[in-house]
Amino acid sequence: MGLPADTLRRLLRRARTMADAKPGPGGPERLLAGRIVANLFFEDSTRTRTSFSVAAKRLGAGVVDLMGFASSVSKGETLVDTALNVEALGVDAITVRARQAGVARAIADAVSCPVVNAGDGRHEHPTQGLLDAYALAQAAGRLDSFDLAGLTVAIVGDIASSRVARSAMAGMSTLGAAVVCVGPPGLAPSGLAALGCRVEHDLDAVLPHADAVMMLRMQFERHDDGKDAPRGEARPSGVIASVREFRAGYALTREREARMKPGAFVMHPGPMNRGLEIDGEVADGPRSIILEQVRAGVAVRMAVLAELLGV
Ligand code: CP
């Protein structure tokens, strides 16, 4: 994400204000009255698109949704031209989800209104990183400081494919957490250490020391073409020998959950593949803060939209 700690904390404090706000005078529900937020989603989404829509509506804004498959992109129009045309229709802010890394940046360079990256290929998903930090701070009782110092967060699985991992790593380490990336070498290459984390390949050795374990979805769809790789990065290679082998080494099973540190949390950005990277009983169990992550998304995105629109 690249934002300094004080900027992240300011956004997170604003998100807390949004989460705590009661309806009525002085509340946030008219902050963006008369404004329009356009969600341009050129890749599928459940949580992020709905969450941006709910956030915008809770601030009083109108929302337009444009799905890539139902747009003139299918006739050959570029994503940047699509955004320029949507801006010309009079929208005040654009959120962008795309399969290719760098699309949100390219659109932000072309249009005049604020643009939020809602996930671009394997590159970044900044509001997800913020909501993950918020949910962890909430679970750890640190909403007053948003200081994650002393906490160790293990991010586990298909890290090479994951924009969420990059943004969560950046956000949480900036706020003071120690981040350990864990996976087989094809999915957790040693080069990830350049992003400020430790890289390990033995989950069972890391598990008893982690205060939070964030499991990632196996993104099979990103393993074969490399079109969405961040500039200069190779696509994951060697990936996994088999799902059975991956589960044996890296799935968060009930047996592994039992060996987690007392009080440690289970996280997952979604969508989950129950029975692959995480057992259903673990996802639904007492350590899980997965739905708290989703809930935090609305408050975080309210804060981001309000900041970007200057209210
Ligand atoms: N976490 C996340 O980005 O989920 P969606 O793909 O459903 O938006």
How would you describe this protein?
- There is one protein chain.
- The chain is α/β, with parallel strands linked by helices.
- The chain folds into 2 domains: 5-124 and 296-308, Rossmann fold; 126-293, 3-Layer(aba) Sandwich (Rossmann fold).
- It contains 11 helices and 9 strands.
- The chain has helices at 5-20, 47-58, 79-88, 103-110, 126-139, 163-174, 203-206, 243-250, 254-258, 280-283, 290-308, and strands at 36-41, 62-67, 93-98, 115-120, 152-156, 178-182, 198-200, 212-215, 265-267.
- The strands form 2 sheets. It has a 5-stranded parallel beta sheet with strand order 7-6-5-8-9, covered by helices on one side. A 4-stranded parallel beta sheet has the order 2-1-3-4, sandwiched between helices.
- Helix 2 (47-58) crosses helix 11, helix 5 packs across helix 6 and helix 5 packs across helix 11 (290-308).
- The mean pLDDT is 94.
- Bound molecules: phosphoric acid mono(formamide)ester.
